[in-house]
Amino acid sequence: MRIDDSRPIWAQLVDEFRRRIAAGEWRPGAKVPSVRELALELGVNPNTVQKALGEVDRLGLTTTERTAGRFVTADEGAVAGGRAALAESTADGFVSAARGLGMTLSDAADLLARRWDAHEDNIRNGKDA
Fold first, then answer.
1. Which end of the chain, C or N, has fewer beta carbons within 10 A?
2. Long-range pairs, 86-89, Cβ under 8 A, ≥24
3. Contact 35, 46 (CB under 8 A)
4. Mean pLDDT, range 56-83, rounded to an integer
5. Contact 10, 51 (CB under 8 A)
6. 122 — pLDDT class (breaks 50, 70, 90)
7. Contact by Cβ (8 Å): 55, 14
8. What's the first-to-final CA gap in the chain, in angstroms?
């Protein structure tokens, strides 16, 4: 994860943890790595990780069990809702950028279709897209 100096680190961590849940890297019901493990992995202060995880708890994507640790919610609907919210946010960014470049809806849709196909080709060929 690359840290962006224009946004608070804890907010970026919230986005990263939401992405991990939405992408299935952290599966429903699975134990979330400890604050200390995440802080070491990401190279950030444990207090920052704790603040981000608290927000992910507040969003209903994780729960904390006093003696057992933190777990991804087993509520598949909450996970699906989180995935949809991230996708909408990403789409909003694309729409804003495309409009800012003077693209029409048709131009943007064509671009998206081409990039979608290129991504699929890269996956088939074992390359990152």
1. C
2. 86/15, 86/18, 86/19, 86/22
3. yes
4. 93
5. yes
6. confident
7. yes
8. 16
Model pLDDT for residues 13-41, shown as the tens digit of each residue: 999 999 999 999 999 999 999 999 999 99
| pLDDT number for residue 128 | 64
CA atoms of 31 and 84, how far apart (whole Å): 22
Q: Which amino acid is at 42?
A: L
**Neighbouring-strand partners of residue 69:** 65
**pTM recorded for the entire structure:** 0.78
Helix (H, G, I), strand (E, B) or coil at 25: coil
Query: Which residue type, as a one-letter code, is found at position 1?
Result: M
3-class DSSP assignment, residue 44: coil
Q: Tell me the C-alpha to C-alpha distance, in Å, between residue 3 and each of 14, 33, 79, 89, 111.
A: 12, 20, 25, 19, 28
Contact criterion met (CB below 8 Å) for 102 and 95: no
